[in-house]
């Protein structure tokens, strides 16, 4: 496999894995543990369970797809900055999930809020979007890496 192909598989696989991981964390934390919301709130409990089940199934498929692509890519340490690519794009994928899910479900479709029972639900929605931006920025910084200049040791 060429270096270019390996690099592309690591980028795509880690992005998809990060996207699926943050989706799974959203479902586990907000839907199940905290029980703040379901994917579709304006329905009965059976509808909420069904919408959450479909969501969890989709995140599981996403996680498996990302894992398979990374498995096909092989060891990221075989590439220069391969681990940086893997971790950086994982974070970028996760942040992208938060932005897409937050903008579409919370603001455009308005099918749920992060915490609809809060005194100020908009603050929770904005914090969710901010966490997506932070993850993307951190991912970009990790991917880019720190530029180092050689130091001269004088004795």
UniProtKB/TrEMBL annotation:
<dbReference type="InterPro" id="IPR018719">
    <property type="entry name" value="DUF2243_membrane"/>
</dbReference>
<feature type="transmembrane region" description="Helical">
    <location>
        <begin position="54"/>
        <end position="73"/>
    </location>
</feature>
<feature type="transmembrane region" description="Helical">
    <location>
        <begin position="9"/>
        <end position="34"/>
    </location>
</feature>
<keyword id="KW-0472">Membrane</keyword>
<dbReference type="Pfam" id="PF10002">
    <property type="entry name" value="DUF2243"/>
</dbReference>
<feature type="transmembrane region" description="Helical">
    <location>
        <begin position="85"/>
        <end position="104"/>
    </location>
</feature>
<keyword id="KW-0812">Transmembrane</keyword>
<feature type="transmembrane region" description="Helical">
    <location>
        <begin position="124"/>
        <end position="142"/>
    </location>
</feature>
<keyword id="KW-1133">Transmembrane helix</keyword>
<protein>
    <submittedName>
        <fullName>DUF2243 domain-containing protein</fullName>
    </submittedName>
</protein>
């Amino acid at each position: 496999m060429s270096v270019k192909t390996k690099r592309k598989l690591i980028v795509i696989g880690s992005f998809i894995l990060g996207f699926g991981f943050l989706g799974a964390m959203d479902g586990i934390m907000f839907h199940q543990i905290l029980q703040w919301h379901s994917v579709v709130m304006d329905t009965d409990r059976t509808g909420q369970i069904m919408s959450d089940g479909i969501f969890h199934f989709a995140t599981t498929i996403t996680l498996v797809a990302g894992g398979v692509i990374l498995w096909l890519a092989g060891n990221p340490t075989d590439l220069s900055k391969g681990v940086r690519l893997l971790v950086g794009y994982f974070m970028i994928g996760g942040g992208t999930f938060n932005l897409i899910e937050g903008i579409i479900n919370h603001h455009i479709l308005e099918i749920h809020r992060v915490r609809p029972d809060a005194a100020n639900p908009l603050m929770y929605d904005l914090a969710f979007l901010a966490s997506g931006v932070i993850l993307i920025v951190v991912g970009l910084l990790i991917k880019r890496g720190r530029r180092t200049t050689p130091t001269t040791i004088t004795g």
